[in-house]
Each structure stands twice: as C-alpha cells, then as structure tokens.
Input
Amino acid sequence: MLNLKLISRKATDMTLRFIGTTSDDGDCPTLYEVEETGDIVVQGDRLTDPEHLAQLRDVKDSETFVVIPRELLTRFAPKE
Output
C-alpha cells in the first residue's frame, strides 16, 4: 500500500511529467513524476472503506490512499 502525502504548492513550483498508465481508455490509474524533485504522483481510486482504512498505520490528516494495480508500478516505476 502506498502512503501518499498531500502536496500543497503553487502551480508554478511543480511541473508534472506523465510517466504511464495501465488504462486503455484514458481512465486512471496513472503515474506522474514531479520534474523538480523526482517524486511520484499517483492517480488511482481512493480507498474509502472504513474497515480498510482502519488497518492503515501512522496516517496524518493530510494523507490519502489510493489503490492501483501492481502492474502500474512494475511497468513504469520498477525497482532499480
């Protein structure tokens, strides 16, 4: 499970570069790279089920969680 941080920056401070998607119809999930930092932005379906959220640890108010297929990471963000 990815722990995502909510980034609050001015639009001019962050340039996103499309990395890839496993969707054939332009729908999510998708990965983007923040060009200035190399950080990854993940687009996916938000995890909202209270039972699933209760299983997560050390969650800050500013964080959210999304579900993406493993193939998205192995295809576009492989471990080096």
Observations:
- The mean pLDDT is 85.
- Residues 74 and 80 are 11 Å apart (CA to CA).
